Amino acid sequence: MSYYFAIIGTQDNPLFEYEFGTSKQGGDGMARFTEQARQLNQFIIHSSLDIVEEVQWTNGQMYLKLVDRFFTSYISCFLTASNIKFLLLHQPPSSSSSSALPHPSSSASTSTPSLVSSSQSSTSVIPSLSTLTGGSNSSTSTLTGGTSRTSTSIAANPTSPQTEEAIRNFFAEVYENYVKAIMSPFYRTNMEIRSPVFRARVAAAGRKYL
Amino acid sequence: MSNHLPAGAGNGGGGGRAGDSGLRYPSNGKTIYHRPLNRTKTAELSKAAFAYLFAEMVSYAQRRVTGIQELEKRLNLQGHPIGLKLLDLLLFREPPRTQLRPLNIIALLHFIKINVWTHLFGRQADRLEKSSNPDTPDEFMIIDNEPLVNAYISVPKEMSQLNCAAFAAGIIEGVCDGAGFPARVTAHTVGDTGGGGSNNGSGGGTGADGGRGEGGEMWPGRTVFLVKFQPEVLEREALIGAKS
Q1: Interface A:B, Cβ pairs < 8 A
Q2: Are strands A73-79 and B223-229 parallel, antiparallel or unpaired?
């Protein structure tokens, strides 16, 4: 799962952007966009601004949930009162082989608690859990275990309520830090946010929730 | 904006760059991000300190101005950014269930009358009125009997048209603009002269007769904040009203 987060000002100008990957299920927090996709992401985000403008007057909530979709890229939006858009593009892993690669490396120690937690929802995980802890030579079964595991995670289900809630929490935390940023007397609307502390805070929120 | 994005904007990590960009942290290590946004109920500012600062702001704005209109405009401009920021701050402080962006004029004016006024002046505005003139449906009035900003301002006789509450008008204008309701807000004294602000020259002065001079003796400093929305705001308002 890869994420591209952008803050767009009132003149449709970018104020901040940040790329990251999931940190859940043993993810390393790195975005897995290809070079081409990285450039495309900015276009996708900007094209979804039209839809945001349509939705924003029908609903007074700040969190507008999922607003747009472009092939496998889903765009969630959060709109502050002063018309600043927080847009999060999230892309579920395109093919299972490339996405499951980071899992076996950290399978032995770190991912066991997450397996236990997800086994409550799907019983099919339990046999693969035993093979996973059994040995490293059963790499094919760990891969299938990985994919069935992500079916309940936020990564594979961009439209599920859990994902929606996780993104809501992420946006809420970014919003708090954004309001703090604009409280600076030297900040004017539509100025780029360059604070490294702000960037670190966004990264922390991404690690915490997504 | 994109032409001055930092080079590593995409994947740059944390505060590692802080050192070479020459950014300096406060000695206690606490930046603006470490401070809470909510304030305690008792945390109020000294009125004397505000009065002193505001008097300086007025005299600063008065330098090299050619007329009262320009002076009011400068005061308005000083207040504008405050309004823009207040909008986000006050909505953030609302409990999550009522954290709603104002979608129509009434909701916005209520937000100003209650939340903004309570935050700034410790009480609500006294009245909210819509222009009774059918030719100007875009004009609304927020009425304050005794604006706090004017408490220690004595306007000389030859500048009787001046109302330093133009600063507060600027704050209101900032809130309106920020929320997506572009408007022009002007402050008019209606207490003693009864519509004395009508020659403001903004074209919206006619609405100031809403005060009707009533209670002029009781509230000599009564100020009407005339909010004149841009035509596109009313157009959108009609569209949204028709849909819902």
Answers
A1: 111
A2: unpaired
